[in-house]
Design a protein that fits this description.
- The longest helix is centred in the middle third of the chain and has 19 residues.
- Strands 1-5-6-4-3-2 form a 6-stranded antiparallel sheet, with helices on both faces.
- The protein has 11 helices and 10 strands.
- With 309 residues, it is of the alpha+beta class.
- Helix 7 packs antiparallel against helix 8.
């Protein structure tokens, strides 16, 4: 598994790549065709529309995620999981990248990435959860346990390195730096450096005294956690479930892998417990992820001061 993962992230062409359309319906648009479709907005339905990330449904069967904050590493981890695990994920049809001039600075270029996927119909658990009974919720938790165990069992190519699937910066918003400081964004060569990056981030958004206080709390976390492959945003909004007319639970698909990477083992549990403890979701999280009670208290305290994470 380690060999496959290393080969996968090192051999995909980052300039422009389209996977073979053989056997796939409908036909996969080229980059030029895709840009024309998005510009004309004919048969385009936007599922998400922000300055940095857009998700557009093209016709009945294709969805494209694109923008200046979209990373091709998301498409690569999805493709890797599709090829080497039993975890249901979206089907990647093509990955593209292009550069365009900045509006206010034509001499400078912006990179825009495109992840073209097969559209998955149906609601997420965010919509389904209030109407599910305890048996259905238990079935979903059991399936998610299997998916999470498989994901976390994939050996890290470098057990000390904490970063994205390509060994680059972490995409969790907590590690975003307005100055692009690599000591905040990662990748990190150890858990000590990872914790120091969190403190440095707090200095950037708060002050040194606040960061110093949290540094003491981070010492409680220690540095002996395993490095595991992590979705990093495993909340109901990113989990799709097939439920038939009789209420039977079918395939459980995990979407939105943009924050995924190699994190300390408690990170998945911490993010899955966000944002608010308003219903029984938190009880079921502990059925598919081992709890980390000490770590989550410190994790949540720090999270609250990074408002958009």
């Amino acid at each position: 598994m380690v060999l496959h993962l290393v080969l996968f992230v090192s051999t995909i062409d980052l300039r422009t790549m389209s996977m073979s359309p053989s056997g796939l319906k409908p036909s996969i648009p080229t980059l030029d065709e895709l840009q024309t479709l998005l510009k004309d907005r004919k048969d385009v339905v936007y599922l998400k529309l922000t300055t940095a990330v857009k998700v557009a449904k093209l016709g009945a069967d294709i969805v494209v995620k694109y923008g200046i904050s979209v990373k091709l590493s998301e498409g690569k981890i999805i493709q890797f999981l599709a090829e080497h695990t039993k975890i249901p994920v979206p089907k990647i049809l093509a990955l593209y990248t292009t550069k365009v001039p900045r509006i206010n600075d034509p001499g400078s270029l912006l990179t825009i990435n495109y992840i073209v996927m097969k559209f998955i119909p149906g609601p997420t658990l965010a919509a389904l959860w209030p109407n599910l009974n305890t048996d259905q919720k238990g079935q979903i938790a059991n399936v998610l346990r299997s998916h999470c165990d498989e994901l976390r069992s994939i050996p890290a190519p470098n057990p000390l390195l904490l970063g994205n699937i390509e060994g680059g910066p972490l995409e969790d918003g907590l590690f975003w730096s307005s100055k692009g400081d690599p000591m905040i964004t990662g990748p990190f060569e150890s858990e000590e450096a990872f914790n120091a990056g969190v403190c440095r981030r707090l200095v950037e958004i708060a002050d040194e005294h606040y960061a110093h206080v949290n540094e003491k709390f981070l010492r409680v976390l220690g540095t002996g956690h395993r490095t595991v492959l992590t979705h990093a945003d495993l909340q109901r909004k990113n989990i799709m479930a097939d439920v038939d007319a009789d209420g039977k639970i079918g395939k459980i698909t995990i979407i939105d892998w943009e924050m995924s990477g190699w994190y300390p083992e408690y990170w998945e549990y911490g993010n899955a417990m966000l944002p608010d403890w308003v219903d029984d979701w938190v009880d079921y999280v502990e059925q598919f992820l081992d709890p980390y009670y000490v770590e989550i208290q410190i994790f949540l305290m720090i999270r609250r001061h990074v408002l958009w994470c």
